[in-house]
């Protein structure tokens, strides 16, 4: 079974530029998550989709971050304009069902973003 | 106050030692307690989970939850160099959201 795929793996941009990350979840997984992991910290949920609807985006900085999951499969996360503090690893995860209880979230390898 | 506090580490132990990792949490609504392992430049992977209080053992790994003191632990017996990674505790309440600790980096020296 293929895992969660993410691209690009690394990205370096100047502040105020825009950047987009792509995620392909495990086939058949209904729920997709984007997390931000700053160096030395645990992952923080940015947005959660169930199929193509948003379940939770309470911690997404909506003035600069946007995300979409068209057709309930792939997803993109965009930052525009980027700030220095956005330097982090952006992790995508997916789960088979709604994500409750003991359900496992499967993580991709992440995209490392450095904003200069 | 953060919802989940994790002993920061890092920890460096000789091969064969017992590794003890700890977290405390503040939200009494947490019902599910997970440990994730994250190798360098990889995403986290679920190692174990426990529901409510008690112990759970899986091979060399034992997870403990004490809800009365809001304390969770992971023990790794007979540690191996392949156990070198960052270990993240995570908790989930009924709203499905996972809250992660900051992680403890463990190095097992051969």
Describe this structure in words.
- The complex is a heterodimer of chains A (116) and B (110).
- With 116 residues, chain A is mainly beta.
- Chain A is 0% helix and 47% strand.
- In chain A, strands 2, 4, 5, 6, 9, 10 and 11 form a seven-stranded mixed beta sheet that branches.
- In chain A, a hairpin with a 2-residue loop joins strand 5 (44-50) and strand 6 (53-56).
- Chain A is globular, with a radius of gyration of 13 Å.
- Chain A starts with a strand and ends with a strand.
- With 110 residues, chain B is an all-beta fold.
- Chain B has no helices and eleven strands.
- In chain B, the strands form two sheets. In chain B, strands 2, 4, 5, 9, 10 and 11 form a six-stranded mixed beta sheet that branches. In chain B, strands 1-3-8-7-6 form a five-stranded antiparallel beta sheet, with no helix packed on it.
- The mean pLDDT of chain B is 92.
Question: Based on CA inertia axes, which overall geometry of chain A fits?
Answer: globular
What low-confidence regions of chain B span 5 or more consecutive residues with pLDDT below 50?
none
Chain oligomer state: heterodimer
Order of helices and strands of chain A: EEEEEEEEEEE
The tally of strands of chain B reads 11
Number of strands of chain A: 11
**What is the percentage of strand-forming residues of chain A?**
over 45%
Considering the chains and any ligands shown, give keywords for the structure.
heterodimer, A: 116 residues, mainly beta, 4-stranded antiparallel sheet, 0% helix, 47% strand, globular, B: 110 residues, 6-stranded mixed sheet, 5-stranded antiparallel sheet, 11 strands
């Amino acid at each position: 079974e293929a895992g969660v795929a993410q691209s690009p793996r690394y990205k370096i941009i100047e502040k105020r530029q825009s950047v987009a990350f792509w995620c392909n979840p495990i086939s058949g997984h209904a729920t997709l998550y984007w997390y931000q992991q700053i160096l030395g910290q645990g992952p923080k949920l940015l947005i959660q989709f169930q199929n193509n609807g948003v379940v939770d985006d309470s911690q997404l900085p909506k003035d600069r971050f946007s995300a979409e999951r068209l057709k309930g499969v792939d997803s993109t996360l965009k930052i525009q304009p980027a700030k220095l503090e956005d330097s982090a690893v952006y992790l995508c995860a997916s789960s088979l069902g709604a994500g409750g209880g003991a359900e496992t979230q499967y993580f991709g390898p992440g995209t490392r973003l450095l904003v200069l | 106050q953060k919802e989940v506090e994790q002993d920061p580490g890092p920890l460096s132990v000789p091969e064969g030692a017992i590794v003890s990792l700890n977290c405390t949490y503040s939200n009494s609504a947490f019902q599910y307690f997970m440990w994730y392992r994250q190798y360098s430049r990889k995403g986290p992977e679920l190692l174990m989970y426990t529901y409510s209080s008690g112990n759970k053992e899986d091979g060399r790994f034992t997870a403990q939850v004490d809800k009365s003191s809001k304390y969770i632990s992971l023990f790794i017996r007979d540690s191996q160099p392949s156990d070198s990674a960052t270990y993240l505790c995570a908790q989930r309440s009924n709203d499905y959201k996972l809250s992660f600790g900051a992680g403890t980096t463990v190095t097992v020296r051969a």
